[in-house]
Every structure is written in structure tokens, then in C-alpha cells.
Amino acid sequence: MDRIIEIKITKKSYLVLICLSAIFSCKNSKASIPDNNGGFFEKSTVADTITSTKKTSTLVQKSNIDKKWYGIYKTRLDYGKIGGMNVGWDLEININSDNITASGSGYQIGFKDEVTAMEEGNKLILKYKKNLDGYTLGENMNPEFILIKDNRNFYIQSEWIDSDIITKPDKNGFKISKEN
């Protein structure tokens, strides 16, 4: 007796089979890209070269600022008494050879952003790069911060600092201390 086996294939099982065959058929395949001399590069080599180029350009951008700006900058911005308590927030900007971050924490505020820097005379213009934690309002500020050096003093300007702060700014902005 001949037996006839009937297999019922549903749409769902058909899609599963296609996906599995695609996964296993591509598992060990290598893509190649033609070079200018008639040969071929492996795709992974080209991707590694592109990644290396991106890393290099990032490092070049970071080294464009003078090392005099490297350090940790801190200030306290006070609102005065609210509900019988002294309230405000702390701003910290950390500049080193690897990255630049700005963070704020305190009364109704909390953020940590990575920023890029461009030096313009006695000013360091800090522009939003990406949010690392907290509020994302910095992405709408251009620039997010301006750090100003005047003789031995440093000042900060930013839209983060609102008009409710009881400490009033000097002509260059709010005073900020620098730790090396």
C-alpha cells in the first residue's frame, strides 16, 4: 500500500520556514565589494575602516579645544526659600580629553547631557550632543551653555538658568568655579 502523506502548510508555518531558511543560508556567507583594481574587499574590512575613521574624527574634534578648559566647573543656583526650605540646583560641567558632560541636579531639575565644544576667543561654546539621563530640554537649546573665561574667573550662560534664580548674573553671566 502506498501511503500518501498530506502536509498542511499554513501561512504562519510558511513564514517560519522562510525565516529559518534565510537565517541558516546566510550564516556563513561573506559579502565582498569591488575595489578599483579589479579585486574585492570583504564587507567587514570596509566596515572596520569606516568605524576607525569615525573614531579618529571624533578624537580630532575633541582635541580642538585648548587644555586650559579641561577641568570640572561647579556652581549653585539658588531660588531662595520655597515652603520654608532653601532650594536651588547644582550645575556641573566636566571637560576632559575623552568627553564633555554637563549635569544639573536639584529642585525640579535633573539632567546629564553630553556636549560638543567649540572655542571662540575667551568663550567655550557647548552644544548639545545627546542626553545621557533626565530631562531632554538641552536638545532645544543652541548653544546649551557658554563658558566664559575673564582673567582668572569663569562664568556660565545658559537657558537652563531661569529668571527665578535669586543670584543675579554679572556682565559675563553667572560665576562658576573651576577645579582642575
From TrEMBL:
This is Lipoprotein. It comes from the Bacteria. The lineage of its organism: Bacteria, Pseudomonadati, Bacteroidota, Flavobacteriia, Flavobacteriales.
